[in-house]
Design goal:
The protein is mostly helical. The chain is built from 10 helices and 2 strands.
Length: 195
């Protein structure tokens, strides 16, 4: 019998099904993985996550496997290379924002010890259960979005941040029908010990 999955998961796309089953909503504490997901979510703004996911391997190649120390030093030559890369999203504002946002993430890492500490600190290192199935923003995403904008980030509206929090497992948002939904309080209130 086939597993029931969240309605947004395109069952005809094996890559998307695997992403839903093994990655989406699994809590991420690793800085490199969180950073990569964050940059990709900013590229998603106005597009579908499936579109980004299908290009993720190309993004990894184009963006030096998301090596933040390389990305913060991208120059005009590299920017031009990215804008001419037909395998990724070639939106100039998003490409420029990816570099700006990376520089801000680097500052956050210095101030908080890690990007993970920064993002998880907003929930006191707890996983939050989504209140209304299918919602696209919350008080939490509003607060984080506002803080990121204040720091100079772009393409970090509340909808983008909410999507990021769901994908990173900070908000538990699998639908109740989905085989990955956890409704026991003990399953969703895992507390991460700050390092």
């Amino acid at each position: 019998m086939d597993k029931i999955r969240c309605v947004w998961c395109n069952l005809k796309n094996p890559k998307y099904v695997e992403y839903h089953d093994k990655e989406w909503g699994v809590p991420i504490y690793d800085d490199k993985k969180l950073y990569e997901l964050f940059i990709l979510e900013c590229f998603q703004a106005g597009l579908s996550w499936e579109c980004i996911l299908n290009k993720r391997d190309y993004f990894r190649m184009a963006y030096d496997n998301f090596d933040i120390d390389k990305i913060i030093n991208y120059d005009d030559v590299k920017i031009s290379e990215l804008l001419n890369n037909q395998n990724i999203i070639r939106n100039k504002l998003k490409v420029l924002a990816s570099i700006t946002n990376s520089r801000v993430v680097k500052e956050i890492q210095k101030n908080y010890g890690s990007f993970s500490n920064y993002i998880w600190s907003f929930t006191d290192y707890k996983i939050i259960q989504e209140e209304i199935e299918g919602q696209t923003t919350s008080e939490l995403s509003d607060r984080i979005s506002k803080d990121m904008k204040k720091r100079g980030m772009k393409f970090v509206g509340s909808v983008t941040i909410y999507s990021f929090l769901q994908a990173a497992g900070i908000i538990n948002a699998h639908s109740k029908e989905c085989w990955l939904y956890k409704n026991e309080q003990g399953d969703i209130s895992f507390v991460h010990n700050k390092r």
